[in-house]
Amino acid sequence: MPRFPPFGFWLASMDTSHLAEHAGTAGALFASVFVVATTTMRTMIPLRVFGILTNLVLITTAIPSHNYLVILVQTVVLVLNSYRLHQMLQLVRDVKKSVNSDLSMEWLKPFMTERRCEAGEVLFYKDEKAEDMLYIVSGRFKLVESGIELPVGAIVGELGMLSPSNVRTQTLECVEAGLILSVSYSKVEELYVQNPAFGFYFLRLSSARLFQNIGTLEQRLAEQTAAVSAAAPKPA
Amino acid sequence: MSDDGLLSSLRYLFADFLDEQDNTPPSLPDGLPDGASSVVSDGIHLLMDYQGAAYAKLYVERLQRFVGRQGVDAATFREIARLMGNRMAYEDAIRIAQLKLAEFRDSDGQVRSTDVKKFRFDELVDALPAVAADPVLMVLDKLGWAHRRVSIPFSTASRWGLRRLKIEAWLRRWRLFSIRYSEERAWVERWLHMIGRSLEKQPSATSAIVETATMVEGYGDRYRQGLADWHAIINGLAKPTFDGALPLQDLAGAVAEARAAARPDPRQVALKRAIAEIRARALGAGASAAAG
Predict the structure, then answer these.
(1) CB burial string B171-195: b at 16+ within 10 A, e below
(2) Above 70 in pLDDT, residue B286?
């Protein structure tokens, strides 16, 4: 029975360099389409998705021509694009979840920077122009004018970003050393502009928190009115 | 997109590098007291030259807190406007370069001179954006050089000197991201806060609190000394009085007494002693009044 050489032998004995060249040209054309498509994206999530597709196509087309530099660069960009896309999708998911549950703003944490505060330090003064929102991680913080102590996990200044006057309504003082996270309004604006889905849910969340505040105030007013009525002398 | 639109987009994109910004000065606030318009206008132009329109707008916004406020007469308002303008145009290496260049330009290039100013390393680095300054300060701290003094010439005598001044003045676009700016911002806000509290708690001391801004001026040792003295007086006398912890009936007099005791001494021995005496007297008088 005749014996045939293995397939690899046939492939190795053929001149495949021209095939690789054609594949490279076709791949480069194909990749160009994705590069152009990526640049036409207006918002961040589609831009990242097309960026990832472009990276994959460029890596695939670089393999036959053994262009290791392109493979390396595109792999690094692919990892970066994937991470950023994951971050964006997670942000939208978290904000959406927050709107439907406890109205918390914890989803902003990954975009915040840490700052240590010492006792007696004033974080901002009443009437000062507001430029960032704060998240209390530890320590004790007090709103000076009202005397209200803010609990750990409280967010300060989230509505200031949307208010026309944009000024602090009270002074915030650190009573016991602790840690806060802060994010500038410009950073939140950046996220808002880059990502319409985030913007939509952020507006819903802010409105919900505003209505929650109004509800609390109405409840307090009702309690005070009831207390005044109870204290009033009853007709004989 | 029209050519005009494209051009304006490109201008916006490279605004930071082209030093192009909105040069429209903010308008004067409504309801200014008598004679305040010229002072506020001077302040606006000073800060337009110092930093730009947005910074001048911040000045106007800060002033608006006192327009029509009870207890703020025309003279007090004018003084707040004047002192705040001066303080917001604080002296850093960038400002000194700006002033030196202005002196050269105003003389049509006739005045050519060299001024040598002494700074501390950390003071120079503080004028840089925090992102760049923080690692440099860390290294300087490790080397023990942060407080080392260095003489910096500001010269219009040579072409190279002028070029250097222009580069230093150009750094103003990043001034608002600097460590120094965040400290200055906190200072101005605290000063305004103390004026507000004085208006509520002890209106007769308001002028004295406003005038404390003259304690903080210049750069280098003089600036640091003034700043430390100011905080000592505010923390030792004004704040506890407003908090109700110190029964000081004549805060204005106490501030004047403490200011008179301040000496150019980094340890603040005389000032601290004077503050302690004033506090002891006030607490003693308060205890007697409570007992009597």
Answers:
(1) bbbbbeebbbbeebbbbbbbbbbbb
(2) yes
Per-residue pLDDT of B187-219, as tens digits, reads 999 999 999 999 999 999 999 999 999 999 998
Q: What is the pLDDT of residues B5-23, one digit of tens each?
A: 666 666 665 665 555 556 7
Distance of alpha carbon A127 from alpha carbon A72, whole angstroms: 53
Note the pLDDT of residue B59.
96
ipTM given for this complex: 0.74
Residues in chain A whose Cβ is within 8 Å of chain B: 122, 124-129, 171
pTM: 0.75
Q: Which of A111-115, A123-127, B64-68, B164-168 has the least mean pLDDT?
A: A111-115
3-state secondary structure of B192: helix
DSSP reduced 3-state for A199: helix
CB–CB contact B196 A128 (8 Å)? no
Q: Are residues A125 and B193, on separate chains, in Cβ contact within 8 Å?
A: yes
CATH of domain A106-194: 2.60.120.10
Asked if A127 and A144 count as a contact pair (C-beta separation under 8 A), the reply is no
**What are the residue ranges of helices labelled H in chain B?**
3-13, 15-18, 36-50, 53-64, 74-88, 93-106, 121-125, 130-143, 159-170, 179-201, 206-211, 220-233, 239-243, 251-261, 269-291
Sign of the torsion angle spanned by Cα atoms B253, B254, B258, B261: positive
Q: Report whether B272 contacts B232 (CB < 8 A).
A: yes
Residues 6+ apart with CB under 8 A from B7: none
B61 CB within 8 Å of a chain A CB: yes
Task: Please tell me the distance from the alpha carbon of residue B121 to that of residue B209, in angstroms, as a whole number.
Answer: 32
Domain residue ranges of chain A, discontinuous segments joined by +: 13-85, 106-194
> What pLDDT does residue B1 have?
46
**Pick from A122, A126, A129: CB nearest B61:** A129
Structural element, H or E, at residue B117: strand B114-120
Q: Which of B260, B283, B280 is nearest to B270 (CA)?
A: B260
CB contact under 8 Å between B193 and A171, yes or no, is yes
